[in-house]
Amino acid sequence: MSSSVESAKKLAAYRAVDENFPPNAQVIGIGSGSTVIYVAERIGQLANKDSFICIPTGFQSKQLIIDNGLRLGAIEQYPDLDIAFDGADEVDPQLNLIKGGGACLFQEKLVAAAAKKFIVVADYRKESKKLGESWRQGVPIEIVPNSYAKITKQLYELGAKKVDLRQGGKAKAGPVITDNNNFLLDADFGEIEDPEKLHKQIKLLVGVVETGLFTDMASKSYFGEEDGSVNVWGQ
């Protein structure tokens, strides 16, 4: 990746923190992804960083919190967050998101839902007119393991063009296992006309834990652009 894009990601992350971090924050959510690295870095530079707790969404974000000298907590201890920052695999102009490419979608959604304000930070490749336009790996769906065959069939009935049980690749023989000991399906629905409707349809399937469709959750999205600028969606 070019240095200009990396610089833009850093500018976007720093601006997101500078413009949104509550002055009297007590509990903060920190997600994962290449741009969120700079979010944690910026938060770690705050003079009052010992006065608030940071809640991770997975292993990577836990390490980011530790590496930047921030106080680590768990959502079981702190179920109400002042603000959360996280990345996304794709964002549309209505701030609907696809997340879960990194296999942490349930914990990411749990933290985002617990926050009073949810800020997305990403690079220009994640901007899209419609979900499914540029992110073609499909909607990540976390499921109870023994339900995968039934849910795969039902996803095709809902209109999916392709459904894959995510595999561990060279590092692991067999399916990816989430932090919650579940499987992940990636369901390609093409361009998604109504993300909220699709999310609700999938959630009704017995065995589905959560979907990677985040609707009506994000307040703003900051994008590091290819030319080194920052683009902001939302108010």
From TrEMBL:
<dbReference type="GO" id="GO:0005737">
    <property type="term" value="C:cytoplasm"/>
</dbReference>
<protein>
    <recommendedName>
        <fullName>Ribose-5-phosphate isomerase</fullName>
        <ecNumber>5.3.1.6</ecNumber>
    </recommendedName>
</protein>
<dbReference type="InterPro" id="IPR020672">
    <property type="entry name" value="Ribose5P_isomerase_typA_subgr"/>
</dbReference>
<dbReference type="GO" id="GO:0004751">
    <property type="term" value="F:ribose-5-phosphate isomerase activity"/>
</dbReference>
<dbReference type="InterPro" id="IPR037171">
    <property type="entry name" value="NagB/RpiA_transferase-like"/>
</dbReference>
<keyword id="KW-0963">Cytoplasm</keyword>
<dbReference type="GO" id="GO:0009052">
    <property type="term" value="P:pentose-phosphate shunt, non-oxidative branch"/>
</dbReference>
<dbReference type="GO" id="GO:0006014">
    <property type="term" value="P:D-ribose metabolic process"/>
</dbReference>
<comment type="pathway">
    <text>Carbohydrate degradation; pentose phosphate pathway; D-ribose 5-phosphate from D-ribulose 5-phosphate (non-oxidative stage): step 1/1.</text>
</comment>
<dbReference type="Pfam" id="PF06026">
    <property type="entry name" value="Rib_5-P_isom_A"/>
</dbReference>
<keyword id="KW-0413">Isomerase</keyword>
<comment type="similarity">
    <text>Belongs to the ribose 5-phosphate isomerase family.</text>
</comment>
<dbReference type="InterPro" id="IPR004788">
    <property type="entry name" value="Ribose5P_isomerase_type_A"/>
</dbReference>
